[in-house]
Structure formats: C-alpha cells, structure tokens
Write a structure and sequence with these properties.
Elements: H1 17-43, H2 61-81, H3 87-90, H4 93-99, H5 115-134, H6 155-179
Helix pairs in contact: 1-6, 2-4, 2-5, 2-6
C-alpha cells in the first residue's frame, strides 16, 4: 500500500501553453455539462421553496445559487483577468459577502434577492464568464494562483476546478431537494 507522506503534495509539472489550451477546451465542456445538470435540478425545484431549509440542513437552494454565481465569477472572471469596473454591478460587495465561501445562508428571504433575481444573476455570470474564458490567452493560463484550483496552481487550475465545484454544489442541491420531499431528478 502506498501512503502519501504528510505535508504538501508535490507540485505537478505544468503543461505547455498548447496543452493548457486543449485542457481549457475540455474544462469548458465540463463547465457546460455541470451547469446543465444544475439547471435541471433548479428547474425541478419550485422557486417558492428556494429559501426553505430542510431539517438539519445548513443551507437552502437560494444560497447554493448565489454561491455558484459568486464562485463562477471568481474562478473564471476575477482570477483570469482581475476585477473590471462593471464587475461591481454584476457582483456587488454585499452580494459577494452574502454568498462567498464561509458565508452563512440567511434564515429569511427578507432583504434577499428573489429566486428569479438569483437565477438571472447565475445565468448572467455564466454567460459573461464563458465569453471571458473562451478568449483567454493560453500563455496566461500558466500564471500562478493560490487556492482554490484543481491539478495545477495556476489559472488553468482555477478553470479545471470550476466544474468540480459546481458538481459538488449540484449534489448539495439534490440533497436539499430530497429534504424538501421533492422527487429525485435522476
């Protein structure tokens, strides 16, 4: 049995920029698949139940949707090209703080975006992020980044992490749906 020693894992050898460009195309396909899966779950969830938290659940659908919007912005836009002035309208500081990693879901819909507004925000971030990522310079994909990332500590790793992150939250959405007594989608 191989045991991984304690400490930091070894740093992987970075791909070439040509290899990174090919890997990015694969990541884009996975991002689109993950989003389609998430949308299937959301379409099967009545929006008037998005702020319900099943017994023992730490989250609700509304928080999951807001979190996915903030995360996709962070991984595919902010980490790829930095903050642009229009970003503050897309992801205002208050929204980012409400749905960022470590935030706590609100116990009430009062003062929150409606489910329709959250869904629209999720769709708009996805549309813009996919435009950004489709036009990224392959050489810049190898620029170093701190966590979160998958496989490589660079911009490519952030793109590779995006669909993994979304599928984790799609699973949480599925569990929340079941806690609400809704039938499974798959």
């Amino acid at each position: 049995m191989n045991v991984i020693p304690a400490g930091d894992p070894p740093t992987p050898v970075l791909p070439t920029s040509d290899e990174a460009a090919i890997m990015l195309q694969s990541a884009i396909g996975q991002i689109e698949f993950a989003r389609a899966y998430t949308l299937g779950l959301l379409d099967a969830t009545p929006r008037d139940r998005w702020f319900e938290r099943p017994n023992g659940a730490t989250s609700h659908i509304a928080w999951q949707v807001g979190h996915l919007a903030v995360s996709q912005y962070g991984l595919l836009m902010f980490r790829m090209r930095g903050r642009h002035p229009d970003d503050l309208e897309l992801i205002p500081g208050r929204f980012r703080k409400a749905y960022a990693r470590g935030s706590k879901p609100s116990d009430s819909a009062d003062g929150q975006l409606t489910p329709d507004e959250l869904f629209d925000k999720l769709a708009r971030v996805h549309e813009l992020a996919m435009q950004e990522i489709a036009n990224v310079d392959p050489v810049s994909l190898l620029d170093p980044l701190d966590m979160p990332y998958a496989a490589y500590p660079c911009k490519l790793g952030a793109a590779l992490f995006c669909p993994l992150h979304e599928t984790l939250h799609a699973g949480q959405i599925g569990v929340i749906r079941r806690g609400l007594g809704l039938d499974p989608v798959r």
